[in-house]
Every structure is written in structure tokens, then in C-alpha cells.
Specification:
The complex is a heterodimer of chains A (288) and B (309). Chain A is mostly helical and 288 residues long. Helix content of chain A is 83%, strand content 0%. In chain A, helix 11 packs parallel to helix 13. Chain B is an all-alpha fold and 309 residues long. Chain B has one domain: ABC transporter involved in vitamin B12 uptake, BtuC (Orthogonal Bundle), CATH 1.10.3470. Helices cover 79% and strands 0% of the residues of chain B. Chain B contains 14 helices and no strands. In chain B, helix 12 crosses helix 13. At the A-B interface, helix 3, helix 4, helix 6, helix 7 and helix 11 of A face helix 3, helix 6, helix 7, helix 11 and helix 13 of B.
């Protein structure tokens, strides 16, 4: 606590950055936050927040299935989220995957997660209970250098793909009918985006946990939407706000060890959203 | 609980054996109350397309319970307090966004609900971390412990459940009317907004009560799945409502019975049985629709059922 606050800020910051676990958290966290802000903006724009909610539960079941099977947690995580994301996208293409179908399915997937939890904890020691909590609520300070680097590369790749399809995706999100008439492959973009969303949920789960993914996905994007009506500016702002919440959250959790980093990151993202809402409420509504 | 194998097919004997344990009796009592409540209220939740709001209310009890435990208060107080506050917060959102808060609606209002949900869960994690040595209780809060239900809890649940059902009965027709067509209902003088808020409060009490038995993460399965199954099978409200309750009770009893004789957790069995019934009902609906398409002169009653599909 005193390391960051008592001495002058520069020394405190330098001593914080000299810790390898903080550096890992920042390397992985920055890339994950940037990706989440970017994807989150499209999630909010496309009204697919509930799909993101569903995918975060799928992430939990997938990670625990991998743990129960004794393989790398990330295999289960990504296989489950990307697979279900694609499935939701393909069902949604026919206009039938409504919130009831999504809700029913992820309620069952969560039941599967409980089964895997039982299988996993029955086979091991109390460490397994800790692993379960880490999947649910994340442990960015426990991320290894290799895991942080991998997460950063995956995030960079996903950001590149998303930027490549950003313009048609934006068009298809705002007005799918006109976009389809203009030759934008709307039916292809939907499932592709949900697959990217799935991978993003898998990434973000490693940082803040499956249950708190929303804090990085929805909060910065919703805050950005309150601050500007211009889509490109809002995209940039969502990324900036997500990265800011990540950095400040990591620093705050380092300075106050009683606070878990997942809480500070998500709490700050929610605070950004609350501040943006207040700011918008005090001024006039957005011109459109 | 585990390691007991079924010898032969003596079902009556098995059930008698199961009921000879007091904890199983209490589990069945609590499970029945929760199932009736979730089946009935979930039906309206599905009808009103408020699955996302329902899910958020279901998980919001977790930080309440964790916070109350940290402060040394009763967990029930936390469940009810947080769920009711959450319901009021969601009710305060603009109506247009609230009703379509899901896939394909106005994303912004569902983003607000999502942010609230994430923040609530983050607070729950904070309380759990601050309350050291609570880690083992975390799984109980999230996934429930239906085998550890006390007589007092059953009684409290019964009171809360009876209150919820009475409130639902009082709301009855206006709620149904405004759920199916809010514009027409408003034109006919139904206080749509007030009815909607009252329903969210009932949903909150039911979710808070049920969470204490099933855990915060699994209460949603009982809310949404039986109701979704029922709405696949009939489009008429009253039979749909009764069917939803019936399915919820059936999967809960079966799930508890199977879980007693198997090493796997009850949450898995109940959700899997419920989801199987949903898949069967969806298959049945598709079959009916295909038959209807093959024969052009379908009775109107059957075609109407497609609205639900």
C-alpha cells in the first residue's frame, strides 16, 4: 500500500513496474482491454449484449471442462466460446435465435459447468477450488509471462481482423437491409462477428474472469456512446476507456492489496460509465 | 449421498428410502416451492421478453448475500435487499429499451443492465475477498446447496412464495394484457408502467428467495427453461402457465431424485432435464408446423400456435 502512495509518484510507479507480475498484467491486460473495448462497441451497437452474457457462461463451462479433462484451460475456453458464438450467429441468421433460446441454452451450459466443477473438485485438492474462483472472477496478477504474451498476440490478431471488417460491419450493424442491398455480405459478417465475440470473451475471461467479462465489454462502449455520436470516434473512445480502466485498475489493486484487481478494473469501468451518463445528463442530449 | 447404487427397479422402495432422510424431505419441499414460483413467474418473464433483466436480477442477489455475510448480517437480508433494489433500477430505465433488452433490441439499455450486472458481481467478489475464509461458501452462494436446507428456510421460502403468487394473481389480467400488447393495454387504461414495475419486484422477490436454495447462477434455469418449453407447446396463456409450473416441478423432483442416487450435482441434473424437455418441445413444435404446412387447410387454432415458436 505504502509503496505507491508514500514515496513520490515517480518512484512508486517505477517500483510497481519493476514487479514482473505487474508487467505481465499490463502486457496481457492492455491488449485484452483494447480488444474488449473495440468488440464491445459493436456488441452494444448490434444489441447483442445478451449473447455476450451467454458466452461468458459458456466460457466458464468450457474452462472447467478443460480443467476436468486435465488439459490447458485455454483450449476449453476458446473452443467453447468460439463454437457457441458461431452457433448463435448461424441460428441468428434465420432470425430465430431470440433471447429465450439463448437464455435456455446458456442456463443448461451453466448446469454442465456445475457438473465439470464437481468432476474437477472431486479429483483434486483445495487448489482446484481456487482454480474455479479464478475462472469465475479472474486473476490478472497470477498470469504468467508466457500466458500474457500469448493473450497479447491473440488480442492483436483479433483486433487486426476486426479492423479489417470494421467498415462493412458498422454498415451492416446500423442498417442491415440497406447494407445487404449494397452487396455487403451481412449473413457472413453476423456469425463471423459472434465468433470474434466468443474469442474476445475467452480472452477477457483470463483477465477479469468469466462472470465479469461484461465490465470490459459493455461499460466502456456504453460510456463512449454517451460521449459521442460519431461511430469512429466512439470506437476509439471505447478502446481508450477500456485500456484506462485496465491500467488504473491494475495500479489501484497494486496500491491497495485488499482489493482484488478484477473488482478495481470492472469497478472503474462502471465508474467511467456512470461519469459519462452524469456528464450527458448535465449537458444537452446528443445531437444525432 | 454418493456411492449408493440402485439395486433392481424397486422405484417405490427407492422413493421411500429417499424420503426417510429429513434433509431430502426439506430439499423436496424447498424445491417444490421454488419450482412453482419460478414456473409461474418465468412464464410471464418469457412472455414479456425480459430474460436478460431476469438473469440480472437472479445474479444480483450474490453480492447482496456476500456483502451481508461480510458485515455479519443475515444472508437473506442481502438477497432480498439487492434484488429489490436491482428491480427498481431496471424499472427506472426507459421503457422502450427495457422491453427489448435482449438480442436485436436497443443495445444501449441492455448495455446499462449488463454494466450493472458486471459491477454487482464484481462487488460480490470484493465482499468475498474481504471476508477471509469464505472461499468455500462462494460455491454455495453461486451454485446453491439444496441438501442443506433448514426447516426455518423452508418456512421463510413458503411465506415469500405465497406472497409472490398472491401478487401475481392480483396483477393477473392487466399483466397478461400489457405483456401481450402494451400499446393496446395502455390505450384501454391499463397502468402499463406500474404493472411492469410491480412485476419486476415480484420477479426480484422470487429470484431472491429461490437463489438461497439453488444459488444465484442456477435460478435462471428454472425461470426461463420450463416457461420456454411451455410456450413451445401452447400459445394459450392459462394452459401455458400451468404447463410451465408442471414442467418446473417435474424436473426439480426428478433432478433431486436422480442427484440423490448419483455422484453428480443436482444443478446439473435439473438444468439438463429442463433443457431436454425444451429440446423435445421444440422438436414437437417443428413436427406440428411441418404437418401444418403439408396440409394447407389447417385449423386456425393450430396456426395460432406458431406465434410462440
Amino acid at each position: 500500500m505504502t509503496a505507491l502512495l508514500a514515496a513520490d509518484p515517480v518512484t512508486g510507479l517505477a517500483s510497481m513496474l519493476s514487479q514482473p507480475f505487474v508487467r505481465n498484467a499490463l502486457v496481457g491486460g492492455t491488449a485484452i482491454a483494447a480488444l474488449s473495448g473495440l468488440v464491445g462497441y459493436f456488441v452494444v451497437l448490434r444489441g447483442q449484449v445478451f449473447a455476450g452474457d451467454a458466452l461468458s457462461h459458456v466460457a466458464y463451462a468450457g474452462a472447467l471442462a478443460a480443467l476436468a479433462a486435465g488439459i490447458d484451460l485455454r483450449f476449453g475456453l476458446f473452443a467453447a466460446t468460439i463454437g457457441v458464438g458461431l452457433l448463435l450467429g448461424l441460428l441468428g441468421g434465420r432470425g430465430t435465435a431470440d433471447d429465450v433460446v439463448i437464455g435456455t441454452t446458456f442456463a443448461w451450459v451453466l448446469g454442465l459447468g456445475v457438473l465439470f466443477l464437481a468432476l474437477y473438485t472431486a479429483s483434486g485438492s483445495t487448489d482446484n477450488g481456487v482454480a474455479n474462483v479464478n475462472v469465475l472472477f479472474g486473476s490478472i496478477f497470477g498470469i504468467s509471462t508466457a500466458a500474457a504474451t500469448t493473450a497479447a498476440w491473440i488480442a492483436a490478431g483479433l483486433i487486426a481482423v476486426l479492423l479489417l471488417i470494421a467498415r462493412p460491419l458498422l454498415f451492416a450493424s446500423v442498417d442491415p437491409t440497406v447494407a445487404a442491398a449494397r452487396g455487403v455480405p451481412v449473413r457472413l459478417l453476423g456469425p463471423l462477428f459472434l465468433a470474434i465475440l466468443g474469442a474476445t470473451v475467452g480472452e477477457a475471461s483470463q483477465a477479469v474472469g468469466a462472470l465479469l467479462v461484461f465490465g470490459l465489454l459493455a461499460a466502456p462502449a456504453a460510456a463512449a456512446q454517451r460521449l459521442t455520436a460519431d461511430p469512429w470516434r466512439a470506437l476509439g473512445l471505447a478502446v481508450a476507456l477500456a485500456v484506462l480502466a485496465m491500467w488504473a485498475g491494475v495500479a489501484l489493486a497494486y496500491a491497495a492489496p485488499a482489493l482484488p484487481p478484477s473488482f478495481t478494473i470492472v469497478g472503474l469501468a462502471a465508474a467511467e460509465f456512470a461519469a459519462a451518463t452524469l456528464y450527458r445528463g448535465l449537458l444537452r442530449p446528443l445531437p444525432t | 449421498m454418493s456411492g449408493f447404487s440402485i439395486g433392481g427397479l424397486d422405484l417405490v422402495g427407492d422413493v421411500e428410502h429417499l424420503l426417510s432422510y429429513h434433509f431430502m424431505l426439506n430439499a423436496l419441499r424447498a424445491g417444490t416451492i421454488v419450482a412453482v414460483l419460478a414456473g409461474a413467474i418465468g412464464y410471464f418473464m418469457v412472455l414479456r421478453r425480459q430474460s436478460f433483466a431476469g438473469h440480472t436480477l437472479a445474479v444480483i442477489g450474490f453480492p447482496g448475500a456476500a456483502g451481508a455475510t461480510w458485515l455479519g448480517l443475515s444472508a437473506s437480508l442481502g438477497y432480498y435487499g439487492f434484488c429489490l433494489a436491482g428491480a427498481l433500477a431496471i424499472a427506472a430505465l426507459p421503457a422502450a429499451g427495457r422491453l427489448t433488452a435482449g438480442l436485436g433490441g436497443y443495445g444501449d439499455e441492455s448495455a446499462v443492465i449488463g454494466t450493472v450486472q458486471a459491477f454487482a458481481l464484481a462487488c460480490g467478489f470484493l465482499f468475498v475477498s474481504l471476508y477471509k475464509g469464505f472461499l468455500s461458501g462462494l460455491t454455495g452462494l453461486l451454485f446453491g446447496s439444496i441438501t442443506g436446507v433448514s426447516d426455518g428456510q423452508v418456512l421463510a421460502l413458503l411465506v415469500a412464495g405465497a406472497g409472490c403468487l398472491l401478487a401475481l394473481l392480483a396483477l393477473g389480467r392487466p399483466l397478461l394484457f400489457s405483456s401481450i400488447d402494451s400499446d393496446v393495454a395502455r390505450a384501454r387504461g391499463v397502468p402499463v408502467r406500474l404493472v411492469g414495475t410491480a412485476f419486476l419486484l415480484v420477479l426480484a422477490v422470487a429470484a431472491a428467495g429461490a437463489s438461497q436454495i439453488t444459488g444465484s447462477l442456477l435460478v435462471f434455469a428454472l425461470l426461463v427453461t420450463p416457461a420456454a418449453t411451455a410456450s413451445r407447446l401452447t400459445a394459450r396463456p392459462l394452459p401455458g402457465l400451468l404447463l410451465s409450473v408442471l414442467i418446473a416441478v417435474a424436473v426439480t423432483w426428478l433432478g433431486e431424485g436422480i442427484a440423490f442416487y448419483s455422484p453428480y450435482p443436482i444443478g446439473f441434473w435439473v438444468t439438463t432435464l429442463a433443457f431436454s424437455s425444451f429440446l423435445l418441445a421444440t422438436g414437437y413444435r417443428h413436427g406440428i408446423d411441418r404437418l401444418g404446412r403439408r396440409r394447407p387447410a389447417t385449423p386456425r387454432g393450430e396456426r395460432r400456435g406458431e406465434v410462440a415458436a
